[in-house]
Specification:
By secondary structure, the protein is an alpha+beta fold. It folds into 2 domains: about 180 residues, Ribosomal Protein S5, domain 2; about 120 residues, GHMP kinase, C-terminal domain (Alpha-Beta Plaits), CATH 3.30.70.890. Helices cover about 35% and strands about 25% of the residues. The chain has 10 helices and 12 strands. Strands 1, 2, 3, 4, 5, 6, 7 and 8 form an 8-stranded mixed sheet that branches. β4 and β5 form a beta hairpin. α2 packs across α3 and α2 crosses α4. The longest helix is centred in the N-terminal third of the chain and has 21 residues. It is globular, with a radius of gyration of 20 Å. It starts with a strand and ends with a helix. InterPro entries: GHMP_GYDIA-like (IPR047765), Ribosomal_Su5_D2-typ_SF (IPR020568), Ribsml_uS5_D2-typ_fold_subgr (IPR014721). It comes from Zunongwangia atlantica 22II14-10F7. This is GHMP kinase.
Amino acid sequence: MRFYSHGKLLITAEYAVLDGAQALCLPTKKGQFLNVEENSSGLIKWISKDENGEIWFQDEFRKDSFGIKSTSEENISEKTTEISQRCIQILTEAEELSGLNLFEKGYIIETELEFKREWGLGTSSTLINNISQWLSIDPYVLLNKTFGGSGYDIACAKADGAITYERKKDTQISLKSPFNPVFSDNIYFVYLNQKQNSREGIAHYRKQEDAHREVLIEKVSNITQQLIKCENLAEFELLLNIHENLIAKAVQLPKVKTRVFADFEGSIKSLGAWGGDFVMATSKNDPTVYFKTKGFEVVIPYSKMIL
């Protein structure tokens, strides 16, 4: 059996999407495969491959009266142990949600990434959606019981084009969006050479008074709607700049353009939690040379990144 899910980029409503703001989300062309092969071993062998087909993680799991355990807990690194524990958590919750005993038979589970793991495009969310497809369970529930988050990444994993996403209490609203800018040739995605730590921004965001947060949610949702309808680059850039200013105030962090790209002529928008992974840049001319001179080698045009 073979399953597939797309990667994700959150274009608007970072942080605010947690509280019900409407977000514009774009699935990426590249994602992750899951191959599942049934056997009679009574074990689950887990193999994870990167975009070059190289194994970056593997382990074997068994189940006894105390639960699911790794068969190779000795002689493996602390990092591998951490990943093994995450796999155990996913398998445990997936078994409970599906009502199945996966160890009654046995399986070889193999994941295949199409993008670099450090890019933050959804190694975890694509896995959760693929596991959910395999076992016919609700991916949002499995996500909530494992990694947590707003769920926009699951919506992207399942999407075949641009979507808007809202979370209202325990309900996820994912709708197809007509977002398809005529100026997409002026949009680029730049990798910032570091993984983001979202805790600081979320902590500041959570400190806001409820009334301030409600105003932010309304403003961000309005920007999402305006961006979707946008017909020219100048208006698009203006909306991105307004959005950046709103979030900067809410999370009390400097804008990435101010911090790193102050001399850039176009707009630069953080994607997802501030501080790392990808940013979206808009420019009338190809900005690849500009970013590379600053040490940012990964510059991907919209047409090559977005589904």
